[in-house]
Amino acid sequence: MRYWLAAILFTLPLSAAAYVSPGNPDGFVNDFANVISAQAEAELEAMLASYEEQTGIEIAVATIPRLGDETVETYAVRLFEEWGIGKQGQDAGALFVAAIEDREMRIETGYGLEGDLTDAEAAHLLNNVIPPYFSQGDFDGGVRAGVVGILQAVGADFDAGALASGQSAFGAGSFIHQYFFLLIFVFIWFASVLARSRSWWGGGAVGAVGGIGTGIVSGAWLWLPILIAAGLGLDYLVSTKYRSVFLHKDGSSKSHFIFPWIFFMGGGPHRWDKGGGFGGFGGGLSGGGGASGRW
Amino acid sequence: MPKIKASWILIGVAVIAVLWLWSGYNGLVSRDEGVKAQWATVESVYQRRLDLIPNIVNTVKGSAAQDEEIFTQLADARANYAGAGSIDEQAAAATQVESALSRLLVIVENYPTLKSQESFQMLIAELEGSENRISVERMRYNQAVQGYNTAIRKVPTNLIAGVFGFGAHELFEASEGADQAPVVDFEN
Question: Which domains does chain B have, with CATH numbers?
Answer without folding.
Answer: 2-164 (1.20.1440.20)
